[in-house]
Amino acid sequence: MSITVDPRRKEKINRYKAPKNQGQNGGANEDMMPDYMNILGMIFSMCGLMMKLKWCAWFALYCSCISFASSRASDDAKQVLSSFMLSVSAVVMSYLQNPAAMTPPWAS
């Protein structure tokens, strides 16, 4: 039997060091898109509920899905879930109040 020699060079190994967070929110490199989509989803779902605009309710559902898909595991799941449920309820309520097909906002 032959003994194989490890070809890796130990002096060339560099351990990964995570960058230190700067400030309270993690510095400028933090992705804020899930938070923006969450806020937009809440705004559009409230517009869809109050003004009975179906396109606002659908756009709120779209924003909530983006917010849920791009959120981090460390984010608060309750806030994302409440925004998602609010947008789903906006879509359901807008179709319960008026079951006709949606007309685009630019059509008269």
UniProtKB/TrEMBL annotation:
Residues passing through the membrane, by range: 39-68
GO CC field: endoplasmic reticulum membrane
Subcellular location: Membrane
One record GO biological process: protein insertion into ER membrane
Xref: InterPro entries: ASTER
Taxonomy, superkingdom: Eukaryota
Keywords from the named record: Membrane, Transmembrane, Transmembrane helix
Recorded GO MF terms: protein folding chaperone
Chain spans, region Disordered: 1-29
The protein, known as: Protein Asterix
Species this protein is from: Drosophila kikkawai
Gene encoding the protein: LOC108070598
